[in-house]
Amino acid sequence: MKPIQPNYTNDLKEISKQITELASEIQKIKELLWPEDKNSDVVEMYPWHLKNSTTTADFHESEK
C-alpha cells in the first residue's frame, strides 16, 4: 500500500498569488520613494555621466 501523497497544488497557487501581490506592493513603494523622471535617460546611470565628474575623454577631445 502506497502512502497518501498530499496535494500541494492549491497551496502553491496561493503562495504564487501572495508573491505576485507582494511584488506589486514593493513596486508601488519604490515608485513613492524614487519617483522616475519621465524625461531622463535610463542609459545615463553611471558615475561618469554625472555633471560634476570628469574623465580622460574630457581632456582629449582633439583625438576623436
Describe the structure.
This protein has helices spanning 9-33, 56-59. It is mainly α. The mean pLDDT is 76.
Task: Give structural attributes.
single chain, 45% helix, mainly alpha, 64 residues
Distance between the termini: 79 Å
| Residues in helices, as a percent range | 40-55%
Number of helices, where a helix is a run of at least 4 consecutive DSSP H or I residues: 2
Inertia-based shape: elongated
Main sheet properties: none
CA gyration radius, whole angstroms: 25 Å
Average pLDDT:
76
SSE topology string: HH
Strand content: under 5%
Q: Structural class, please?
A: mainly alpha
Task: Describe what is shown at a glance.
With 64 residues, this protein is mainly α. It has 2 helices and no strands.
Helices and strands in order:
Elements: H1 9-33, H2 56-59
